[in-house]
Amino acid sequence: MSRVLRRRVQWRHLPAEGFLALAVCGGAVSYSGVLRGYSWLYPVLVVVCAALAGVSAARLFRLHPVLVALAGAAAWIIGMDSMFFRDSSVAGIVPSLQTAAAAKEALDQAWHTIAFDAVPAAPNVGIVALTAGALGLIALVAETIAVSCRMPALSGVAVLAVLVVPAVLKPESVGPVGFAAAAAGYLGLVATAGSAASSQEAAGRPQGTARGDDVEPHRMGAALSPTRLVVLVAAVVAGALVVPQIIPGFARGTFPEGSRLSALGQNVGLNPLITLGSDLRSSNALGVLTYATDSTAPVYLRTVTVEDFNGGSWAPENHDDQLQRPIGQISSGNQVTVPTTSSTTVINTGGFTSPYLPAPYAPMAFDGVRGDFGWDPSDLSVKGPPAASQNQFYTVHSTMPQITAAALSAAVTAPHGIDLVAKEVPRGVPDRVRAAAEQVTAGASTPYARALAIQAWLRTFTYSEKTPVEDGYDGTGMDVLDVFLQKRAGYCIHFAAAMAVMARLVGIPSRIAVGFAPGHPTGRTVAIPSAEALPEYQVDGKDAHAWPELYFQGLGWVPFEPTPSRGVLPAYAFTDTTGQGGSTNLDNLNEGLRPGPATGAPVPAPGQAPQGARTAPESSWLPALLLALGVLAVAVVVALPAAVRAAQRRRRLARGLRGIWEELEAVGLDHGLAPDPADTPRSFANRLGAWEAHDGGVHRALDTLTTEYERHQFGRPGYEADEEAARAAVSEVHRAGRLAQRPVHRARIAALPPSSFAWLSRAVMRLAPAARAAGARTRAAFRRVLRHKKG
Questions:
Q1: Which domain holds residue 507?
Q2: Mean pLDDT, the chain, as a whole number?
Q3: Beta strands 520-526 and 556-559: pairing type?
Q4: Where is the stretch described as Disordered (predicted)?
């Protein structure tokens, strides 16, 4: 390699960016439980590596930090286009107007996946593009903080952001592989980024410098030796993996499950089966919704059903293309041959957040619903936009067959006229489940008898919301079901899934219903037109429930209750082994309760929206919000180095002559003439004199500053330095250094001065005192709490 190329090309940043790629890409491996399989991993790796490659290429030629950030953003865009928007881009990599439309469509698809799909979600183009783009931007931010801003330790916040999603959403948390890779990459970044940051030069050295090209750039911090780095990485990673297992109170997962945000509200958006456990374990059992009904039987409020039991996780199917409107008239399509009973239920959803409307089964008509809702002919669920269930007040007219044990026993013909998915035996059923289904139903001659046998056997298990978490089988899927039958302990979703799968194994179509068990009375009544006042009940997170529904010809979908101590055991499901005393929440039953006196404010009539209620939020704001966040992230990446550098400059210039001299050294580092440990103040100033432009201004400024500094450091005590003249000298040297860079590399774009982003620097500095004051108040409050506890 020629001497000129060595002078113009800088390689020291490559190890730091390699370790950063390991941290981000290694942490992305832990998303395997958030997205199904690993087909999504390749585009994620491409986008992250492309973004870092763009930054690395810009640093090779010592471009200004602003240009480095722009190069990284351009490489990120190219990576996103090549992976997700190739057909709508020019030459497959250059975005166009069609690319913007394709990106909006992808964001809409991603939002739909987040709102409705299960964990792990299907890796469609939208959610994978969102994941890859977010991780690529995180990598750019981390690289800017570590190298451009010379704060490698702080870049750990960006690396931690990669692990937040699996830590919050996955039952097994991040996992050892993802955490170990992210931790090793971060520690390697910390060990090497100091050398990379100190060697970054905005331009090459001008010819004629005192030390020429042989001067070794000053290091901001010594890099760790390979041996110490390996020992440190091994110690930290081993400690993080071992300590949670031996300290009491930590649950499974690298990040303790007990520290997760599990009580973010009762939301069945991402997957109602997954969130059931969080709702049940939440200590915040506040009322979610209220309802009033004229039904004489306990009321289950159902939201959606699950029929497909294939795959590693189960979730409601997306039938948006099959939804029918309006919901004022719904047809079940079932051939029911027994008498039916009708009921009217008035529901106030309050803060309940879901795309589905809760209703007693089977709903025949909805009155008073606001928004665009449609009903699914396959299970009669009513679905609308995300979070559209909030603040709804509506009336549901339902009908239910009068199911008796005799009618169920008579239903011996093969069921027909239903979805084939509900009849097929799932793939990969464990041998333990098959053996249990055969053994439990041995001797049962009718489908009804087999259903009762399965229910009675499951009700001998133990109800527990904590055992699945502690033993690592909290979730859905055949593997979970296998462990559940071995442990014989779980909560409603495990009991419902076990009975649904075992029922199919013995020839009974089945599905899982998700919603709420009967709540408890509030003592109030709700008045509706042309009817007497209805008693009101409240449902909270503890009432979240799942139960199996089995199909019998002539009766339709019949609910059963295999979960002991929860819900209400139907009259047709009593056996000698179950009994009526199997529920510990008998106070929740609607049957036989007398309404108390009406209290509180009058409730609006059905069809009338509650006064002051807000309309349900639409998802049209999401693409604009994500676009704004993306633009903001790019702006932060571009402007952050200048903002940090301006803050450092102000602090140094305010500290007196010693700080002013440190600023002079930083100016030399910025413009390619870093101080050498062997330099004296005078020798360092002589090298900076190479920036002289012919008028002698730089030499005079350096002589003034050096003289003041030498007298202050080495002269007699009490010398009053001229700090104003010293500050002016530093500004003159900085201006000369910036001007002297431009002729050196005429082939490249001239570096943009940090002053181009001074407005952002000033804004950041205005916010900094307030942030420091808030932090001080928080620390003081924390200390007071600790003192109070000790006292």
A1: 272-588
A2: 74
A3: unpaired
A4: 580-615
